[in-house]
Amino acid sequence: MNVFRYDEVMSGLEDHAGDIVRKSRMGLGVSEADVVEVTGLSQKALEQFESEGSVQEEIQWEPLCERLQLHPEKFKSILDGWTPRPLQGESMPQIRQIATDDGGMEVNAYLVWDPDSREAALFDTGWNPDPIKKCIQQEGLTLKNLFITHQHHDHIAAMTPLRKLYPSMQLQAQGHGVPPKNQVSEGQMFSLGTLKIHARMTPGHASDGVTYVINGLSGDFPRAAIVGDAIFAGSMGGATAHFELAKTKIRKVILSLDQPTLICPGHGPLTTLKEEQSHNPFF
26 lies in a domain? Predict the structure, then answer.
């Protein structure tokens, strides 16, 4: 029986190991008492682990993974401090990750452009339009499209000021309140200069979840998937009510893409398809 004492909070990832345990436990409907029984943790220690990602007691992590349907070696890699390899700008010269914070939650937006036409698309807005406007000006871009991965507030908070700044920008989204002419459908393709953007439905974390797969990029990654909160580096978005649906969509839509693919999550660091296949314990 492998036992691990985990007393350092993870850094660099959106979710620590305790978050992963909590999301899987709640998604599967497993009680805290069941986890206490298989891990040997006290109730207090489990609550601390799920909340803070740290615990002073020993964890029997193999039976924990079996009970929560987590891949044991991949979960151990999270416990051991894995983070995705940092990516340099030359690896993805047509993509900018723009992180904004409301004072408590950081969220990512992504600006993607065609190098010849300088046409650009924005994926989600984050909290603040200013860094988006600055990047558009610095790169000499024309903002053509705004694609929304899902309508949770942190992902669309800056939509109104951005639509005032760029009134010709075309909105594409899914779900309640989106006008029919702006609704995206499964497999719908959009052109951005020489780039091709395909909309793929990934409900689970959100009922209106969309992943946008971009083909034709230069650099190390000819393909990128803007995934919203469907999947994070080493984890996935919370999907208590639709856990199995969320996992199924991630497997079929995201993890089945060809290599190499850059994965651009709504929170946390950039990652790659290869790294998620090797380290994400949910799969």
Answer: yes
